[in-house]
Specification:
By secondary structure, the protein is an all-alpha fold. The protein contains three helices and no strands. It folds into two domains: 31 residues, no CATH class; 56 residues.
Length: 89
Amino acid sequence: MKSRRKPLILLARKWAPLVAGGLALQINLSGCDPEVRDTVLTGIQTSLTGLISSVINAFFLSLQDAGTTSQPVVNAIMEQVHHVQHFLA
């Protein structure tokens, strides 16, 4: 029983900050002006969509180019992280 419980605890630990952040964002934005809320949510959606898309593209590029190191993947991910940080700043 213990071995089955451990993966569930690890999964909960990984998702707990995301769920807590989503709840906090929902509570904090519920009293905002609708235009401000929509702008913030659209920005978050755009940045996360770009980040996820880049990670997926980098993964498939790394599969195609199996003879080299993972450096291009790291560069692609760091580039997208930089774009997200620039967008949020």
